[in-house]
Every structure is written in structure tokens, then in C-alpha cells.
Amino acid sequence: MKVGIYMSKNKRGKALYTTPSRARGTCPICGSTRIKLLYFGKGPEGEKLTVCKKCDGKQQQAV
User: Is the pLDDT of residue 40 over 70?
Assistant: First the structure.
């Protein structure tokens, strides 16, 4: 029996209702609108950014 299949998924569903604007907005890196911004990273001046899933891995190169 796999243990991981019964864990809750914190990046979709009811968990998003408690976040401001349900964690949706415009990604500062790729410019996609009305997309879920659930991943954290650092900007060029060290500020904390929230980015989309597509830009989570490439944020260091693009910023």
C-alpha cells in the first residue's frame, strides 16, 4: 500500500479558499494572467516573489 496517495493536496481545492484572491494573479516572470501563484522565490533585489508552476524552476535564469 502506498502512503503518498492519501495525503492532502495543498495546492488545489479547499486550501486555496483561505489565501488572498484564491492564490490567483499575474506571474511576474512570464506574464500569464489569472494563474495560480503558489511557489516562492527571490527577485533580483532579494525580494520574495510568488510565481506560477511553469516559472518555478526557471526563475533564477529569467530574473
Answer: yes
